[in-house]
Amino acid sequence: MLDDDTIVALATPPGSSAISVIRISGKNSISTIGNIFISVQSGKKLEDQSTHTIHLGYIVDDKKKDLLDQVLVSIFKSPLSYTGEDMIEISCHGSYYIQQQILQLLIRKGLRLARPGEFTFRAFSNNKIDLSQAEAIADLIFSENKAYHEISLKQIKGTLTNTIKNLRKKLLDFASLLELELDFSEENVVLVKRSELFSFLKYLEETLKDLIESFSLGNAIKRGIYVSIIGETNVGKSTLFNHVIKENRSIISHIEGTTRDSIEGELILNGIHFHFVDTAGIRETKDPIEMMGIQKTMEKIKDSQAILYLFDASIKDRKKQKKIVNEIKIIHEKYPLQKILVIANKSDISSFIDHYNLKSKVTYFFEISAKNHHGIKSMLYTLSNLFIEKIKEKNIIVTQNRHYEAFKKSLKEVLMAHKALNQGRPEDLVAIHIKGALHYLGEITGEITNEEVLKNIFSKFCIGK
To answer: What range does the domain containing 195 cover?
Structure first.
């Protein structure tokens, strides 16, 4: 996939704008631009300038003698550039005509239009970044909220890279020593203390489990955290939903069962992207359409990361309150991984009389008035803070499905190595599983990879990145 062509691409979105940036990378970058650039300072040649310098001048079509634009040219010399090669960035005026004229001129000069992600692929091939960092760059470009942005930046800085690097080094040391023991098996030479290997494998197992567990949070942050608003009919779910997303999306009426299908709305809270889902009220019904809506509610609960369970605070009937307590208990048992916030609505009508000590039985309890907007701000703050705290707890959060699968395969090999040691199996068998774990960790960083994987990753980038 890598060749020595000098490549060019528009690094900013196509179309009219104040400025556009055209990016060039390869061995002929500086000389090619030097031939079509006239500095405002007489006699200045780009080839003689230092790396990381910016120069004002004009791009000229030397054949037609046409002045195309006044530009700023930034010089980045190998290896101190993004790609590790000589690079030029031309900041020109953002006219579509100017962009195309400069690009066409450079193509006539022998440059090739870059493929999607080719600049980042060259950075990877020249060991400027590893594969997980390349993916983090793509994540950063497409990040739509603060939390996802911060996770991507952490990975670009090398938090995941360094963790895997340290784990692989230790695994490689053990694998090498175990194989060396095999070479001296007749002399009964012991180079690996079994207690140290046991201890490291246990540490590795816990580390991998933590990384695997973080994927559900990372995936939710990447795609948005889904929050289902559930409860019986006519408890104010749609009123709360409309206020939260600041739109009148759900129809509100006193008729039970008005909401028959789920309705979604988005909101960013404290830098985290949330999808709120207004669901059909849960009750016993013979209406086939309403039953379908209730079935969809159950599906939405399963797919959510958080649940807002609403009930009517004005209910004084002990039987109805007991039913609510039992429903909350069932939801807790059925969906133990979801965060559940219990909300007593309609506090403007009546204060909640807690006959069954519900407040003490749930972790998060709120009294609100969806109609008068009382208590909603506090509830939303708690909701967002639950996920902010989870993000702070994790040094590394896995967001890529490819990493998740590789970590699972690596964990499987570690567990098999541990089992082989416990059963007193031969060292060569233990070494095979250790090398298996090494292999899958190497797939994440790109130390072990194949062309199909690389094409899949870099094809997702824009042309100029």
So the answer is: 136-218+400-446
